[in-house]
Here is the input.
Amino acid sequence: EWECGLEKEGTGGCRTGKGNEETESAAGSGPSLKYGRWYSLRLFLSRHGALVHLPQTLYGVDEVDARASGQKQFDYVDPRNREAQIEMEAIFTDHLRKIGAWLPQRTRTVGEDSGVYAVEASVIIPVLNRAATIQDALRSALSQQTDFPFNVIVIDNHSTDGTSERIDELASSDGRVIHVVPEETGLGIGGCWNTGINHPACGRYAVQLDSDDMYSGPDTLQRIVDVLRSERCAVVIGSYMMTDFDLRPIPPGVIDHREWTDSNGHNNALRINGLGAPRAFHAATLRSAGGFENVSYGEDYGVVLRLTRDYRLCRIYDPVYSCRRWGGNSDAALDISKINAHNAYKDSLRTRELLSRQQMNGKMITSL
Here is the structure.
């Protein structure tokens, strides 16, 4: 039998044996865990030997949670699960320390930016075949009230459903809309973002708006840029309200990622499944970090992991963005094969980032 726990100094892990016949582990004799015993054991074993994955199916389970994937993905930010998440974070942070991947609080900020830009901020909207929603997103962006000039760069990924015509309709009456059709075909969302941030019209800051979402009010862009300016963060992430197509709030409501802490958020980011929205970046810093991977899932997660390896992240904890759930969402109800593919990709991002952080610390380990 295994006993897993945490010691007062923050070390933790598992032990086994009866009486005095204990196998020494990373745990010592800390208090037993309430939620994370298997998790702690899994991490402990990975520190003491290679793990082999057998790809074939070996057994089956009955599905007891019939919710769609788009609902399940927010369980880790549900306040009802907060106690469990705190325990999991402590286990994982201890694991990072033991494998040499833990980083102290990131305080680095963006240096003075003396660049000359056509605008202070650019709203970046990648889009492919969203004729039903693209004008809502554009009008939301164009309605922003700011004390600085901004534009809206729409990267139209060769749409064929009338999206392009709807973009042109608004662009013809408002010069702030810049309609970009990439030369390349088959770009992912990340590749479209790279096209936007490398466009000559890109401003000092690049701010996310998905093609089927909307800003919550006319002050969203101003609030985000105010934080980017005053805090000089490389990245700012706001909070959002889950809504239906008509902007009526739906469960789970506000997603604000209050699990984030300045002291450990950049470490815990390697454990959780997402970091929130809307995301905004100091564009030059984003470019210097290599931009986005050319994929259409996890590209945002990967680039924020990369930035928080070095830079401080800032947050806005009240909702400034409406994330609409509707029949055209690409991630609202995924089948199990797609969920597995997404999870595998995010795990690959975590593995690469762990290795990079170990290299920063001058340590390498063969088993993760």
